[in-house]
Amino acid sequence: MTSLDPVFDKDGVRLTVDDAVATVTLTNPAKRNAQSPALWRALAEAGRALPGSVRVVVLRGEGKSFSAGLDRQAFTPEGFDGEPSFLDMARGPEAELDATIAEYQEAFTWWRRNDIVSIAAVQGHSIGAGFQLALACDLRIVAEDVQFAMRETSLGLVPDLTGSHPLVHLVGYARALEICATGRFVHAEEAERIGLANYVAPSDQLEAAANDLAAALLAAPRDAVVETKALLSGAVTRTYEEQRVAERAAQGRRLRDLAGLSD
After folding, report:
1. Alpha helices of 110-162 — where are they, by DSSP H?
2. Cα–Cα distance measured from residue 205 to residue 127, given in angstroms and rounded to the nearest whole number
């Protein structure tokens, strides 16, 4: 990867931009890129900091693991420096707890914006919050050693960082329930077979595979990709007839634009 000056680099997150491609990197390999509230705020900031020229965002993790999930320090009485512990938050008012979780979720919500396509390049452990972060992206390329797991249930919790919605839509309700309730590992071959992964790459070729996909996504005109993404993402909740109407409207916009008749 070309060395670029980061837009920012803090709290375990680095954002670099190379013209139309941005790279968000988790930068704490010594802790297998374990996640914390500070990291979530940095991820949310990365989304806000993207220049308008960016069309594709690649998410990756340094080291042997993409992200091993939530840093267990969150469940200790002392928590993180300068942060309320999760145990203290649980004892507070319910509305405050809900607002705090909503703030954490912001780190996971911007990856599916219609104006960008996001790619998670996932190797090694992608567990809990790490799994949900990979699920937050539009596409996933995985290394042969990937290990997905949703371990929240085994801790007495539920997946609450926006991962339940894409998981169900990718693999179906029954398989999603089985994966979450058992907390078992999903490895590369199964991940590709059931739709969690778009591609499996040899571990030493993961970065190149993500770069190749990014280049392929940039080959089509931006407005056509944006309209197509909106059309496909909305298909989940539209009826067949509603989707027909949406297709006609989107194609009409594209044709008017190509004819120079757009507003």
Report:
1. 129-136
2. 22
Q: What share of the chain is helix, strand, coil (3-state, %, to 5)?
A: 50, 15, 35
Farthest-apart Cα atoms in the chain, separation? 63
**Which residues contact residue 19 at a Cβ distance below 8 angstroms, ignoring those fewer than 6 apart?**
53
pTM of the prediction?
0.93
**240: CB partners within 8 A, 6+ apart:** none
Q: Is 238 exposed, middle or buried (0-12, 13-18, 19+ CB in 10 A)?
A: middle
Q: How far apart are CA 242 and CA 96, in angstroms?
A: 38
The conformation of residue 115, written as its DSSP 8-state character, comes to T
Helix (H, G, I), strand (E, B) or coil at 83: coil
How far is residue 140's CA from residue 118's CA, in Å, rounded to a whole number?
A: 9
Both tokens assigned to 65:
């693991």
User: Phi and psi dihedrals of 8, rounded to 5?
Assistant: -155, 160
The tens digit of pLDDT for each residue in 202-253 reads 999 999 999 999 999 999 999 999 999 999 999 989 999 999 999 999 999 9
Amino acid identity of residue 197, one-letter, is A
Question: What are the structure tokens assigned to 98, written together?
Answer: 């809900």
